[in-house]
Amino acid sequence: MGYFELIIACIFVNNILLAQFLGNCPFLGTSKKMETAVGMSMAVVFVTVMAGTLTWVIYTYILVNFDLVYLRTIAFIVVIASLVQFVEMFLKKSIPALYAGLGIFLPLITTNCAVMGVCVLNIDKEFTFLQALVASLFYAVGFGLALILFAGLRERTLLARVPKPLQDTSIALVTAGMISLAFFAFQGMV
Amino acid sequence: MVESILFTFGLGAVCGLILSFASKIFYVYEDPRIAIVENLLAGANCGGCGFAGCSAAAEAIVNEEAPANACILVGVENVSEIAIIMGSEAGTAEPLKSYNNCDGGNRATDRFIYNGLNSCSAVTSLYGGKRDCSIGCLGFGDCVRACGFDAIHIGPDGYPEVDEEKCVGCGACETACPKSILEVRTVSQRLLHLNAYDNALAPCAQTCPAEIDIPRYIGHIRKGEYEEAVNTIRERNPLLLACGRVCPHPCESYCRRGIEDEPVSINQLKRFVADYEMNSGKRLPIECAPDTGKRIAVIGGGPAGLSCAYFLRRVGHHPEIFEAMPKLGGMLRYGIPEYRLPKKVLDWEIDGILNLGIDDHTNVRLGIDFDFGSLIAAGFDAVFFSVGAWNDYNLGISGEDLQGCFTGIDFLAKIGNNEKVRIGQRVAVIGGGNTAIDCCRTLLRKGVDKVYLVYRRTRKEMPANEVEIVASEHEGIEFVFLAAPNKVIGNEENQVTGLEYLKMELGEPDASGRRRPVPVEGSETVLDVDMIITAIGQSPLLAFRGKGDRLDDLEITRWNTFEVEPATCQTNVPYIFGAGDSATGPALVVDAIGGGRKAARSIDQFLKGKPVVPQPNALLNKHIPGTIFESVEGVIQKKRTEMPELPVAQRIHTLDEVDLVISEADALYESNRCLSCCRLCYNADA
Ligand SMILES: Cc1cc2nc3c(=O)[nH]c(=O)nc-3n(C[C@H](O)[C@H](O)[C@H](O)COP(=O)(O)OP(=O)(O)OC[C@H]3O[C@@H](n4cnc5c(N)ncnc54)[C@H](O)[C@@H]3O)c2cc1C
Ligand code: SF4
Ligand code: SF4
Question: What is the spatial distance between Cα B194 and Cα B211, in angstroms, rounded to a whole number?
């Protein structure tokens, strides 16, 4: 599979949120306002790329070599959690501006299933390092795309005539379902 | 098995090590108190405090940007513990309370057919949120839903009502309301807020130099809530008894009812509630914020000084007033005569202000009894100048120093101070302002046979208040218009015997648009008088300068007033502020009061170590575009309440108060004439 197809697949066809249904809590939780949605998307891109590549390295060079692949899940969780902590500290000291933007979202992603999912998918699909890097980046971009699209829609639904029982989260779930259906049109493209 | 255990522990150890090294390397200094405070907070990360999570709130508390009780969930114990950590006393923090800016009136019908979500923000995004006026409350109650404490509900008139008991000041309603109707503020923040372009302000409230929320207090009177009305006025003006009597009410000229009918008698209503409080025999309690321990020297105890001291005290500072005269009050006491503002009333009012805990020192004049250096040595953190304008201008004609010649302020101050003054039988008062009229009317009451008022121009150009001119006409003062004094004539004993003046005629308009009077050749006329009072204007007396101290650095304008930044009242010396007549030149009592409050706002910023900056969007007595209408529909004409006054025959022989207070029934009637602008939804298209 060429990189172009990989990118399309990651963003659209196998969109982590709308096709694989991972990371639904931030999807609903941070999509009420465009501002938060954008902040969250950036944080996810940042963390996923770091986590996706690091876990790939650990898996290929340590777990496989020592025949410990069955420890994958637990190892990944520890690694991702430490990584996020580390990144948070690093940003706070070295790039305070970026920290101010992403700061409150970073801890929220520590145990986000989308991040974990990308790491696991990278392994399952037997990607090379470069492929894993690209895939992590574009899965996260796909996450951001879906989240921002959805936040825009949710801001608009405020203005719509929504029957009482469906207001707020219920209509949001219905909307999410329909975007997801729309994304299924990409199915089979790659 | 062994490998897996080894690996798991190994991974844990490596991660732990990396993180602990990282925490050393990437260590950012944080006040250790932040962590302690954070542990004492509820830890719910609910955002109720208005900060992004508990750690942000803890940081704000430690940086003193938030009070010890900022967290809405913790109990009294933790609050007091936090307060101890912060070295302040529990409860020092002023509580935040939600305050509704738009209340009253009938809710008008919708301007559009709207079937969308019943939400204020939805309506605002779609239609700019016009239900009737562009600012008013929409009444769909986003605030009610936002409040997690059940403290807001939509009242019977369709606008939200706040239950002060339940409100914790979390600010959720303020965030939810798209129209800034609800504001969560501490009392101090409210006291020091200046009118702004984006506030819901009636035309009268925009015009009032003290920025009183006029329709709100009139609304209280309408409901019989006189105490609330007094409190509303006191948020902007501590001298309501005095203003209710002497204010020329510029607000009434802009009253919206005045476009179609006679304006509402706003000042009479103020006087009514002010007198109501005084006559009720008890003083309403006045809330003050917790002590800050900062001291301010207020030089001059006139309206500007009293107002500034009052507001500074209410926000927790410690002003001390230094006054040159034997008693406080400035021109209210020594300029405005007894028959307009009885000293008894003034005393009652000033006592109420001093009772808040303001120290006063009378009979001490800066520059003579004490100097500026001693103030600074005494540890005052800021100085406020409100020395007024007490220096009478001279005519500059010959004979002005003869016996029987006085200047206006000098004369009135002597009378006000109960000093003996030798008064003539026939007196000429020169000038056309309030001071001149007050001299004339005072003289009449002292038993003078004939009083002339000599003025350069005509009645139309007289700067005195219209009501004053009318009253003096009634009392039989003779006006000599278009007359320019030429010289004072005296006898051998240096006693005044007459005033020679030139007749004038009106010529071309001058820069101010008034027609300039020009003398008519050979028209010298002599008025047969034995006393002359010159009252042609005043300027501040700044004799305390020039002593080689910091005051010499102050910038002074060419009118001999303090050069201050108009939006902040700060002078070029950062810790010196100025307002009132000494900064603006002779003006009104309300101007001095408004100036005092504006200065208090800046002094508060200065004392808290913040930069002294003007309030963004401040209106500063200009008018909000689009709020001054050409016409108002649906106004049914109703006569304005007449002001009751003592009959002329009775009043000119005593110093009894001339203007009387209106009755309760009249007050009720008059308050119902108010259109409640910016409270009631006014529909221009209806
Ligand atoms: C005769 C007259 C009638 C008026 N009538 C009206 C009216 O009807 N309505 C209206 O709105 N306005 C009226 N005004 C205007 C109004 O009184 C003034 O605008 C107002 O009082 C100004 O307040 P202030 O605090 O700036 O100054 P002031 O009231 O003049 O107070 C200044 C104080 O500072 C003290 N002081 C001065 N120098 C020193 C010093 N070196 N050390 C210590 N203390 C010092 C003075 O003794 C005085 O008490 C009138 C003014 C006059 C003169
Ligand atoms: S105060 Fe604001 S949020 Fe509440 S009902 Fe009125 S417009 Fe809506
Ligand atoms: S009608 Fe009432 S609110 Fe409107 S301008 Fe007149 S006094 Fe003020």
Answer: 7
Q: Is the dihedral of CA B464, B469, B470, B472 positive or negative?
A: positive
**Over residues B355-363, mean pLDDT:** 95
Place of tokens 């020039």: B546
Residue B435: CB within 6 Å of ligand 1?
Answer: yes
Q: Which of B103, B133, B256 to mutate to test the pocket of ligand 3 (most atoms within 8 A of CB)?
A: B256
Nearby residues of B417 by Cβ (< 8 Å), 6 or more positions away: B325, B326, B334
DSSP type of residue B236: T
Instruction: Yes or no: say if A75 and A60 are a contact pair by the CB < 8 Å rule.
Output: no
Element (H, E) at B397: none
How many angstroms separate the CA atoms of B673 and B657, rounded? Answer: 27
Q: CB of B303 within 8 A of CB of B330?
A: yes
Q: Of all residues in chain A, what percent carry a pLDDT higher than 90?
A: 36
What are the angstrom distances between the C-alpha of B232 and each of B100, B216, B222, B279? 13, 7, 14, 18
**Is residue B343 within 8 Å of residue B536, measured between CB atoms?**
no
Q: Kindly identify the ligand whose nearest atom is closest to the C-alpha of B177.
A: 2
Give the integer Cα–Cα distance in Å for B284 and B213: 19
> Using an 8 Å Cβ cutoff, are B305 and B591 in contact?
no
The burial of B4, by beta-carbon neighbours within 10 Å (0-12 exposed, 13-18 middle, 19 or more buried), is given as: middle
The owner of tokens 């119902």 is B672
- The per-residue pLDDT for B663 is 92
Does the pLDDT value for residue B636 go beyond 60?
Answer: yes
Q: How many CB pairs under 8 A join A and B?
A: 60
What pLDDT is recorded for position B106?
A: 39
Distance CA B596, CA B308 (A): 4
Q: Residue B124's closest chain A neighbor by CA? A: A159
The tokens of B135 are what? 């600012």
Q: Cβ–Cβ of A82/B18 closer than 8 Å?
A: yes
Tokens of B528: 């047969």
Interatomic CA distance for residues A92 and A85, integer angstroms: 11
Instruction: Note whether B117 contacts A161, CB cutoff 8 Å.
Output: yes
Which pLDDT belongs to residue B32?
79
* ipTM of the complex model: 0.78
B686 has pLDDT over 60: no
Higher per-residue confidence, B282 vs B59: B282
Do B26 and A93 lie within an 8 Å CB cutoff? Answer: yes
> Residue B684: its pLDDT value, please?
36
For residue B112, name the pLDDT band (cuts at 50, 70, 90): very low
How many Å apart are CA B443 and CA B422, to the nearest integer?
Answer: 11
> Who's near B326: CB < 8 A, 6+ residues apart?
B362, B363, B417
Q: What is the pLDDT of residues B446-500, one digit of tens each?
A: 888 899 999 988 888 888 888 889 989 999 899 999 998 988 998 888 899 999 9
Q: What pLDDT was estimated at residue B82?
A: 76
* B514 compared with B536, residue with greater pLDDT: B536
Tokens of B118: 């019943």
pLDDT of residue B630: 83
A125: helix, strand or coil:
coil
d(CA B315, CA B472): 42
pLDDT per residue as tens digits for the range B307-349: 999 999 999 999 999 999 999 999 999 999 999 999 999 999 9
Residue whose C-alpha is closest to residue A42's, from A1, A97, A86, A5: A97
Give the distance, in angstroms, between the CA of residue B432 and the centroid of all CA atoms in the same chain.
Answer: 27
Beta strands at B525-527 and B576-578: parallel, antiparallel or unpaired: unpaired
Cα distance between residue B221 and residue A148, in whole Å? 53
Nearest to B81 by CA among B97, B61, B96, B101: B61
Mutate to test the pocket of ligand 3, among B676, B678, B679, B681 (most ligand atoms within 8 A of CB): B676
